[in-house]
Write a sequence for this structure.
């Protein structure tokens, strides 16, 4: 169904359910605002509105989809709560982007024991290695690829206040990131996810993490400048773009002598 096609039957309230609209793309009896949310997501995925761009007003979206503004508002509210859209008072609603200051560390939960991650200043990033290779069975499974498919693997060291704090191994599917090189990664001064958005059209919208405690191997300990017996926080993250498509596997080792992992629960 085209993103600008009217929904049927017409809107009769944001909480009413319909069974025929948007057939094949949403479960039967899906609330109408959820169907509108799906259509807006479809436009985001297709790149109709780019990260950082303003989307049409609720009035215009209501006219486009032949529904009430209240239905559109509820759909936009959910997308804003998921950080896919950003409301700005008096300016409109914008597509979220990792280039914004408040989103640069959206998925990073390691914070300093004193002060904030912003008070530390930007991290110094060193790419230790970057190469094209074939996906192992393990990496392929987590990225939804086939064993042997091309992937880009990078190893990155993050320093805060000059202290090596995070060592990350990163795998990206080769197709969407064709042309990405170690030189380009090193030269880009913004967040990696902002680079993925602006140059490869890939936006990370959510992530899953697994956390455990591990001891580093000899090379990891040397890069982090800690004894090999030091317990480190191991964080495995899979980042997804729209429609839950995995686009990045990241395995990091975090020092916690001056930092701690913080997550807000609600």
């Amino acid at each position: 169904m085209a993103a600008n096609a009217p929904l049927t039957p017409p809107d009769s309230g944001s909480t009413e359910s319909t069974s025929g609209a948007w057939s094949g793309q949403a479960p039967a009896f899906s609330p109408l605002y959820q169907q509108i949310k799906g259509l807006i997501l479809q436009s985001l995925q297709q790149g109709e509105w780019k990260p950082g761009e303003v989307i049409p007003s609720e009035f215009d979206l209501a006219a486009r989809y032949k529904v009430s503004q209240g239905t559109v508002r509820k759909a936009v509210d959910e997308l804003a709560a998921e950080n896919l859209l950003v409301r700005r008072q008096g300016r409109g609603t914008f597509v979220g982007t990792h280039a914004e200051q408040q989103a640069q560390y959206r998925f990073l939960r390691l914070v300093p024991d004193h002060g904030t991650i912003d008070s530390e200043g930007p991290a110094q990033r060193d790419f230790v290695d970057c190469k094209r290779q074939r996906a192992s069975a393990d990496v392929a499974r987590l990225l939804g690829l086939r064993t042997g498919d091309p992937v880009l693997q990078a190893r990155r060291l993050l320093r805060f206040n000059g202290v090596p704090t995070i060592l990350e191994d990163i795998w990206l599917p080769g197709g969407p990131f064709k042309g990405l090189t170690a030189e380009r990664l090193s030269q880009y001064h913004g967040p990696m996810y902002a680079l993925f958005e602006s140059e490869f059209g890939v936006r990370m919208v959510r992530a899953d993490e697994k956390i455990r405690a591990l001891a580093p191997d000899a090379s990891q300990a040397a890069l982090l400048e800690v004894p090999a017996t030091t317990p480190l926080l191991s964080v495995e993250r899979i980042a997804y773009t729209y429609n839950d498509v995995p686009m990045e596997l990241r395995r990091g080792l975090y020092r916690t002598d001056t930092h701690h992992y913080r997550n807000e629960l609600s």
User: Anything to note?
Assistant: The longest helix spans residues 32-45.
